[in-house]
Amino acid sequence: MTTANSQARGRSTRQRTAVSSLLDEVEDFRSAQDLHDLLKQRGESVGLTTVYRTLQALADAGEVDVLRTQDGEAVYRRCSQGHHHHLVCRACGRTVEVEGPAVERWAGRIASEHGFTDVSHELEIFGTCGPCTLAARG
Amino acid sequence: MTTANSQARGRSTRQRTAVSSLLDEVEDFRSAQDLHDLLKQRGESVGLTTVYRTLQALADAGEVDVLRTQDGEAVYRRCSQGHHHHLVCRACGRTVEVEGPAVERWAGRIASEHGFTDVSHELEIFGTCGPCTLAARG
DNA sequence: ACGCAATTGACAATCATTGTCATCTGAGTT
DNA sequence: AACTCAGATGACAATGATTGTCAATTGCGT
Ligand SMILES: [Zn+2]
Ligand SMILES: [Zn+2]
Ligand SMILES: [Zn+2]
Ligand SMILES: [Zn+2]
C-alpha cells in the first residue's frame, strides 16, 4: 500500500526538490527560463522541460502563483496559501501580498448581477517601491 | 501645411479604416488572428502583420484595451475612454465594462501604505456568461 | 535485487508575435 | 493631372516561449 500522505504529488525526485526549494528562496516573480538558469548556476541543473512541467504542476496544486508580464511571459512565485493579490514593483519586482475582502465581495456581486457564473478574478497593483523611488531621484 | 487635426494618427488607409471599423462592430475581446480572419471573410482583407501593427498603434493611443487570455494570447477591444475594468466570459469573450470607485480607492491606499508611488492596477473578472452557462448544460 | 510505471531531458514542433525589405500609395507640391 | 517620397503594406523569415515526443533513466513498492 502507498504511504498515504504524499497527496497526489507524484514521486520525490532531485529535480522537483531543486525547483521547489529554489522557489522557497527567491521572493520575486520569475520566469521558467530564469529559474532554469538559476538552477544551472547552483549546479542543481534541471532540464528546461522539467522546470516547465514542475512549475505547471505546482501551479495546478495551488502552491505557486502565476501571472503574466506585459509581454505575455508567465512568471511564478511561491506565495501563501489563501486567496490574495499582489503589489508589485515595476522596477525591481519586489512583491507584497495583499488582501481585500471588500474587493472580493464587490467582484462576486458585479458578476452575479450580470448573470455570470463560475467567477474568478485577477487583480494586481503595480507601482514603484520606496527604495526604487529614491533611486530614481538620484 | 498639414491639416492640423489628424492627431499624430498617421495616414488614412483602407487597411486602418477596415480594422478600426471592425473594432466598432465587434463587442468582445478578440485576438489579432480573429480580427484578421473576420476581415478576410468580409472581403476587406488586410495583411496579418498590418493588423498587428494597427492594433498596437491603437493600443498605444489608448483607443483600444488589451488584455491577455489565460494562455497568454493578447486580445483587443474598443472600449469607452475612461478608466474601467472588465467582466469577461471565458467561453465566448462577451465583455461588460464595470467600474468600482471603492476598488480604486482601496488600491491607492494599499500602495501608499507600502510606500509605493506611481501606482496603477489591473483588474479583470472572469466567468461564464448566462448564455454560455446554459449551453454548457446541454 | 527486481520490475515497471512515473519521470526526465534532448530535441522537434507549435504558435503568437516581431523583424525584414521590396513594393505600393496617400497626400502634398508643382 | 503628373511628380515625389516618406509612410504604409504584406509576404516571408525569424524569434522566443511553451508544449509534444519518446527513448533512456529512476523512484519505490515488492
Ligand atoms: Zn522596487
Ligand atoms: Zn481576490
Ligand atoms: Zn459567454
Ligand atoms: Zn481601476
What does this structure look like?
Two copies of one chain form a homodimer. With 138 residues, chain A is an alpha+beta fold. Helices cover 39% and strands 24% of the residues of chain A. Chain A contains five helices and six strands, in the order αβααββββαβα. In chain A, strands 1-3-2 form a three-stranded antiparallel β-sheet. In chain A, strands 5-4-6 form a three-stranded mixed β-sheet. Residues 1-6 of chain A have low confidence and may be disordered. Chains A and B meet through helix 4 and strand 6 of A and helix 4 and strand 6 of B. Strand 6 (117-128) of chain A pairs antiparallel with strand 6 of chain B, so a sheet runs across the interface. Bound molecules: zinc ion (4 copies). One zinc ion binds next to helix 4 and strand 6 of chain A. One zinc ion is lined by residues 83, 85, 104, 121, 123 of chain B. Chain A binds a DNA duplex (30 and 30 nucleotides) through helix 3.
Write down the secondary-structure element order of chain A: HEHHEEEEHEH
**Total helical elements of chain A:** 5
Main interface: chain pair and counts: A-B, 34 and 34 residues
Mean pLDDT of chain A: 91
The 3D shape of chain A can be described as: flat
Helix content of chain A: 25-40%
Please tally the β strands of chain A and state the result.
Answer: 6
Subcellular location (chains A, B): Cytoplasm
InterPro entries (chains A, B): FUR, Fur_C, WH-like_DNA-bd_sf, WH_DNA-bd_sf
Organism (chains A, B): Yinghuangia soli
Family (chains A, B): Belongs to the Fur family.
